[in-house]
Structures are given as structure tokens and as C-alpha cells.
Amino acid sequence: MSQSEPSVVLQLGPLVLSVPALQVEQIVVLPDVFTVPMVPRHCRGVMNVRGQLIPVRDLRLLLGLPSRADEAAAMNLPQRRQDHINWVAELKASVVERREFKLATDPHACAFGRWYDRFETTDTWLQAALAKFDAPHKRLHATAVDVAGKVAAGDAAGAMGLVEHLETNELRELEGLFKDAMRLVEDRYREIAVVLRHDGGVVALTVDTVSAFAALETTEELHELGLNAEARAVVTGLAHWGDPPQPVLRLDTSLTSPLLA
């Protein structure tokens, strides 16, 4: 048996979720959250919206996902940018001091390359930004092999010329790409607060994006999704939305739900 209900469709990492539209009081970009001591980690604290203090629940943590802040921090883009500045500085020093360059020359072996090869995101803007790294990053590492060849042949001047070209071209391009990516992450990883009204007051759930308002038909096929224990505790049903249809988890917003506790 299915039941249609006006809903707000939410995105949370790989998950698509929904809450009853009639319970949604407002949707805002998450403001500063004031932490509260001695509470579970998913209880982020309280936010002040036009003088109203609203408790904030981190929906990612409630569903067993990494927090949005942790996910962004894991990219560690400022350090990865600095790693490449240091890499080029070490390459230059190896030429000046006539010694072996021992850092990674394989673009897949450096810290950034290992992260880059396995990083996945559903954000098309971030996908496009990161795709721009591939060519200059590979050229940068390939230059180290050419530099080593010139040093071995006794052509220190030629080796230094390659390094200086690297500094003003590939390295400068990568620095710009890292800065662009950091700005994009700051913008795209802003959290949205969905404020739900219930009999006891209001509570805000943090989500990645709000996708749509839609009338969804609910079914009871949750066993097919292999949900973890955290998700099963706060999900009451399954709907489908979009073209092609994709599963939407209906969140439990009743007074006894852990979402509102």
C-alpha cells in the first residue's frame, strides 16, 4: 500500500531523503552554531535565527556518515597545495646541490595523486574543478624525470632551465587550481538547515542541499537498500523521485524519532 504526501526532497552525500513539507517551517543557510557541552556529537548546538534559538541536529552523523566539515577537511587542499610548492623547491635544491631527487616522480604516487585517484564526489562543479588538475599535475611530475636526465648528463644549466619553467608554468597553474578548488569547496560545502516544526517546538536538521518540493508515493521496501542501523532508526519508508526514479528515504519526524530527541 502506498501513500502520497507533499514532501521536501533533501540530498545528503549519496542519500536522497525527504521530510513532510507541512512540518518544514523554514530553510536557511546554516548560520553560526553555538555548541552545547555534554551532548551527543550529532547535537551540534543551537543557532540563532531572528532571535529564535533553534537546536541543530547533524543529519549526517545521525545516519552514520562523516560530517560535512570532516568531509571537506579530509580533502586537505591547503596542505596538498603546499606539498607541491615544497616538491618543486626540493627539485630545485637537488639540481643546485648536485644530489639525487628522492621525492615521487610518479603522479599517482604523491600524496595528492593517491587521494586524487580515489576521490569521488557527486558534486558536478567539484568534479569539473578537480578534472583540471590532471594534465598539469602529470606534466609537473614528468619534468622531474627530465631534470634527472639532464643532471646525469652533466647539463646543470639545462636542468635548472626546466625547473624554472616548471615554477612559472605548471606550478603556477596548479597553485591557481588549488585556490579555485578551495574557494569552491568553501562555497559548495555550506550546510543548509531545514527547520522542522513539531508539537514540542522546532529543531533544525543540517543537510547538503534541498532538491525539490514534490508529492511522493511511499512504499515499504527498505529491506532492499541495506541500510545501516543508524539509518534504520530514523527512516520510516521508501519513495521514488526524479527521472529516472531514484529511491528516497522518508525520515521519521514523529515526536518519538531520534531526529527530534
Question: How is this fold's topology laid out?
Answer:
Elements: E1 3-12, E2 15-20, E3 24-29, E4 33-34, E5 43-49, E6 52-58, H1 59-62, H2 68-75, H3 77-96, H4 111-118, H5 124-131, H6 134-152, H7 156-168, H8 170-188, E7 192-198, E8 201-207, E9 209-219, H9 229-234, E10 235-241, E11 246-251
Parallel strand pairs: 2-11, 6-8
Antiparallel strand pairs: 1-2, 1-9, 3-7, 4-5, 5-6, 7-8, 9-10, 10-11
Helix pairs in contact: 3-7, 3-8, 5-8, 6-7, 6-8, 7-8
Short description:
By secondary structure, the protein is an alpha+beta fold.
Commentary on this structure:
There is one protein chain. This protein is α+β, with helices and mostly antiparallel strands and 261 residues long. It folds into 2 domains: 3-65 and 191-251, OB fold (Dihydrolipoamide Acetyltransferase, E2P); 71-188, Aspartate receptor, ligand-binding domain (Four Helix Bundle (Hemerythrin (Met), subunit A), Up-down Bundle). The protein is built from 9 helices and 11 strands. It has helices at 59-62, 68-75, 77-96, 111-118, 124-131, 134-152, 156-168, 170-188, 229-234; strands at residues 3-12, 15-20, 24-29, 33-34, 43-49, 52-58, 192-198, 201-207, 209-219, 235-241, 246-251. Strands 3-7-8-6-5-4 form a 6-stranded mixed beta sheet. It has a 5-stranded mixed barrel with strand order 1-2-11-10-9. Strand 7 (192-198) and strand 8 form a beta hairpin. Helix 3 packs antiparallel against helix 7, helix 3 (77-96) packs antiparallel against helix 8 and helix 5 runs antiparallel to helix 8 (170-188). It is elongated and about 80 Å long.
